[in-house]
Amino acid sequence: MYMVSFIFEPGDYDARFHELNALIDAAARATPGYLGVESWRSADGRRANATYYWSSLETLREFSAHPSHIEAKRQYRNWYLGYHIVIAEVVRSYGDAGFEHVTPNARASRIAPPSAPITDATEPTP
């Protein structure tokens, strides 16, 4: 599994940006081997990140060659103040299983299921 983090500082978005963005999103989701995406924005709003997950480098390359993606890369200066790409192989992924994530949870089988909710002793327990 591979992840690609597209870290960027947003600029001004026009109608063409929104059109290409929708086309790129559809192309990613339609590419066999696309596993998911997650996004965040810094508290001050200056920087954002979209992290895409892919089953292999080949599927990532296939997406990268999509005509809409190539066009957007050519025009990025129209919409972004700057960007940085990180491509990484996911070697391990784990958590407390408190929520689902696109990456496998290596500890899932070792985590006890959540306990029953704590109730106030004065309230009857169902």
List the helices and strands and how they pair.
Blueprint: E1 2-10, H1 15-30, E2 34-41, E3 48-54, H2 57-64, H3 67-74, E4 80-89
Antiparallel strand pairs: 1-3, 1-4, 2-3
Helix pairs in contact: 1-3
Model description:
The protein has 126 residues and is α+β, with helices and mostly antiparallel strands. The chain has a single domain, classed as Alpha-Beta Plaits. It has three helices and four strands, in the order βαββααβ. The chain has helices at 15-30, 57-64, 67-74, and strands at 2-10, 34-41, 48-54, 80-89. Strands 2-3-1-4 form a four-stranded antiparallel beta sheet. A hairpin with a 6-residue loop joins strand 2 (34-41) and strand 3 (48-54). The protein is globular and about 50 Å long. Mean pLDDT is 86; it is low at 118-126.
Which features does this protein show?
alpha+beta; 4 strands; 3 helices; single chain; four-stranded antiparallel β-sheet; about 130 residues; Alpha-Beta Plaits
| Separate helix tally | 3
Tell me the series of helices and strands, N- to C-terminal: EHEEHHE
Domain tally: 1
What value does the Rg take, in angstroms?
20 Å
Which structural class fits the helix and strand makeup?
A: alpha+beta
Mean pLDDT: 86
Topology-level CATH name: Alpha-Beta Plaits
Low-confidence stretches: 118-126
Strand order of the largest sheet: 2-3-1-4
| Beta strands, count | 4
What is the terminal-to-terminal distance?
44 Å
User: What percent of the residues sit in helical stretches (DSSP H or I)?
Assistant: 25-40%
Largest sheet: 4 strands, antiparallel
Share of β-strand residues: 25-35%
- Under the CATH scheme, which class? Alpha Beta
CATH architecture descriptor: 2-Layer Sandwich
- The backbone outline, from C-alpha atoms, is globular
